Amino acid sequence: MSNGWSWYVIALVVLNLAGCVWLLWWTGKRRPGDPAPEDTSHYWDGDLTEYNKPMPRWWLGLFYLSIVFSVGYLVYYPGLGNWVGSSGWTSPREHNVDKAQNDTRIAATFAPYAQVSLPELARDPAALRLGQAIFANQCAACHGADARGARGFPDLTDAIWHWGGKPEDVLASVADGRQAMMPALASALGGEQGIAETIAYVQSLSGQKVDAALAAAGAPRFAVCAACHGADGKGNALLGAPDLSDTYWLYGGDTASIRETLEKGRSGQMPAHAQALGAARARVVAAWVYSRSQPQAQP
């Protein structure tokens, strides 16, 4: 805050306090010619009378005490422009102290799980409760509260893992994140006809009913896709390239959805959570995610 704005705030605060003192003094005194407290001639229902009595002294005293308290408060805490207050209190320092205390409690809670393997954690009811709570706060916005995902967000409860479903793969996804990239391939596939043929061939890999001639024409065009998805279309977990021969489609397996994928490409990002969660919490939530696709691992 500049000095000009600081003095403006100080003047505003002082004027308001002085105005409150003056208002209490001015309205609390009686002047010559004022009607007597019982002489107002305002009556209702015959016997209800409005009086003009001044406020009790103790009540006025409380008002004055509140003003004295506010002055002391403004001296002790930073409330007058750039004045830092006699206590030296700051909200960032208060935040840092609270955060340090909470971090200590969190570290103590998750310390027992820091060196435990994910399969073991996946059989620990206490660890799974903690993992589910973390998932609800950090992951459910994309993958859903039940971890079943949505269009463009993987279902974490099945056995299909584009980046690998081993415990270390799941932990790497949570801690380090993933960046998938499917480039637009319209020109590489030969335009509209090439796209239609490739769509038919890709759909045939997953057992969908397609035009056999169109799919056969698309087979050689699939060589463009085989660099990532493999010659047999079964994908590559190292690249996050999905298996095109199963029935699971992250963005949809209908003709329109596949066409959109080929023409515009896809870019899916799983953010890294290692820094936000820390190693122990990332491990616990990864164990919960791993347990969703491993029913035999659940307690």
TrEMBL record:
One of its GO terms (biological process) is proton transmembrane transport. It comes from the Bacteria. Residues 126-206, 213-293 form the Cytochrome c domain. Heme c 2 binds at M182, C225, C228, H229. Binds 2 heme C groups per subunit. Its cofactor is heme c. Coiled coil: none annotated. Pathway: Energy metabolism; oxidative phosphorylation. The chain crosses the membrane at residues 6-25, 58-77. Gene3D superfamilies: 6.10.280.130, Cytochrome c-like domain (1.10.760.10). Its main location: membrane. Belongs to the CcoP / FixP family. C-type cytochrome. Part of the cbb3-type cytochrome c oxidase complex. Component of the cbb3-type cytochrome c oxidase. This is Cbb3-type cytochrome c oxidase subunit. It comes from Tahibacter aquaticus.
